[in-house]
Design goal:
The chain is an alpha/beta fold. It has helices spanning 30-39, 50-54, 61-71, 86-95, 104-108, 110-119, 154-162, 185-194, 209-218, 227-230, 236-245; strands at residues 2-9, 12-17, 20-28, 44-49, 76-80, 99-102, 125-135, 138-143, 148-153, 168-173, 199-203, 222-225. The protein has one domain: TIM Barrel (Alpha-Beta Barrel). The protein is built from 11 helices and 12 strands.
Length: 246
């Protein structure tokens, strides 16, 4: 599945370069882009509340709820950014979101988040792992918008949540995100081979249509694409055709 990504700061669509809030490009109104992507065939959209990710007290709840209502049932919504408790998840699911993305909190408060996997349907939760990759054996998790690197390895966190029913993982190679420098195909081949029962989503670096067939062949179930769509490298429709023709 091709999943267009929309990152939102102060009600506007932006792209951050390498996660830096100081290096952002503004792309305008989220509503018009959502409609455009849906009209081009997107069946799922990935929304990130960057204000909420930076400060949970500044989550853009009103805007997010409006966007979800305008999107469903034409397309499903996967959303992350500043999720800090079960009530946040419950509210978003009730408003119509399909999946909730859990990032830093899954690392910093695993006891709490594991309970969420028992309370909610695991199919509604996505574990987001942002990686600093030093070698095939050394892939460390970064948190808080990549500002802090942990000693936790990719294998450790996946196994920890796999034990409580983990179904979906969004995996980002930090060195690729927002760069249009190409995807880390070998990373996705590796993790899909290691955990064949998990649905992995790739994120970061896609800039050519030829990458889409390679990524699908790696075994992933979804490709999150942001900047390439915003900068018109290719359309959502073209990307979906490449996925379907693989």
């Amino acid at each position: 599945m091709i999943i267009p990504a929309l990152d939102i700061i102060n009600g506007k669509i932006v792209r951050l370069y390498q996660g830096s809030y100081h290096m952002q490009t503004n792309y305008g109104n989220p509503t018009s882009l959502l409609k455009k992507y849906i009209n081009q065939g997107a069946k799922m959209l990935h929304l990130v509340d960057l204000d909420g990710a930076k400060n949970p007290e500044k989550r853009q709840n009103l805007l997010i709820n409006q966007l979800i209502k305008k999107t469903t049932p034409l397309s499903r919504i996967q959303i992350g950014g500043g999720i800090r408790n079960a009530k946040d998840i419950e509210t978003l699911l009730k408003s119509g979101a399909t999946r909730i993305v859990l990032g830093s909190i899954a690392v910093t408060q695993p006891k709490i988040v594991k309970k969420w996997f028992e309370y909610f349907d695991p199919n509604t939760l996505v574990l987001a792992v942002d990686l600093r990759i030093y070698s095939a054996e050394n892939r460390k998790i970064a948190i808080y918008g990549w500002q802090k690197e942990t000693n936790l390895q990719l294998e450790q966190i996946i196994e920890e949540y796999y034990a409580v029913g983990l179904k979906h993982v969004l995996c980002t190679d930090i060195s690729k995100d927002g760069t249009l420098l190409g995807s880390n195909i070998s990373l996705y081949q590796s993790i899909c081979n290691s955990w064949p029962k998990i649905s992995f989503q790739s994120s970061g670096g896609v800039h050519k249509l030829t990458e889409i067939s390679k990524l699908r062949s790696s075994g992933i179930k979804g490709i999150i694409i942001g900047r390439a769509f915003l900068e018109k490298k290719f359309t959502v429709n073209e990307a979906i055709s490449c996925w379907q023709n693989e």
